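Private note to self, pasted from the team thread so I don't lose it. Backbone tokens:
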């Protein structure tokens, strides 16, 4: 069995996908909470190579193990387990944002406006020409929820997503990222 792909759907659902193994009866799915938690059996699936875990909790980290099972010569057998990367479930829903470009004499801006959010700080993830840049701006209240990022070239596109965060009881609490948005410059 080879790699398992994990992705976050909405705020409290994790989608698991893996490559099909021929000649098996199904797949067993296990989950570990935190770094050293015990493995918990979530269930089995037959006839498909995906699973949706809707029992995760906000702010927790999880890791999954999947194995193939079947029968060979009348004996029950199972493959070695494949382990996923760890995934952190956000504490808050993704912020609601709008994006716009502003062109002024001598300067061009990408304007990001927060409409609905929870948190004190903003993290902006951007990708342009294959280069990823993450910027943290704080505090949100200082900018009244409106951020203007200058850029020089007016051609092409930038891909952008944002999330908010705050520190509560000494721990960072994050929102989910917004959907990745393509913005024409």
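Design output:
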């Amino acid at each position: 069995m080879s790699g398992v792909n994990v992705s976050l759907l909405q705020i409290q659902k994790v989608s698991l996908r893996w490559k099909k193994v021929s000649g098996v009866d199904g797949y067993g799915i296990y989950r570990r909470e935190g770094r050293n938690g015990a493995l918990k059996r979530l269930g089995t699936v037959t006839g498909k190579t995906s699973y949706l875990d809707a029992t995760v909790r906000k702010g927790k980290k999880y890791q999954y193990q999947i194995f193939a099972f079947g029968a060979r010569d009348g004996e029950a057998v199972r493959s070695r387990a494949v382990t996923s990367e760890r995934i952190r479930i956000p504490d808050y829903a993704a912020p609601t944002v709008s994006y716009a470009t502003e062109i002024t004499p001598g300067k061009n801006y990408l304007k990001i406006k927060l409409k609905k959010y929870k948190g004190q700080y903003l993290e902006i993830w951007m990708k342009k020409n294959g280069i990823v840049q993450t910027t943290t701006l704080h505090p949100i209240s200082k900018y009244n929820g409106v951020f203007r990022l200058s850029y020089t070239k007016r051609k092409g596109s930038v891909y952008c997503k944002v999330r908010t965060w705050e520190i509560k009881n000494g721990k960072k609490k994050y929102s989910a990222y917004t959907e990745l948005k393509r913005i024409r410059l």
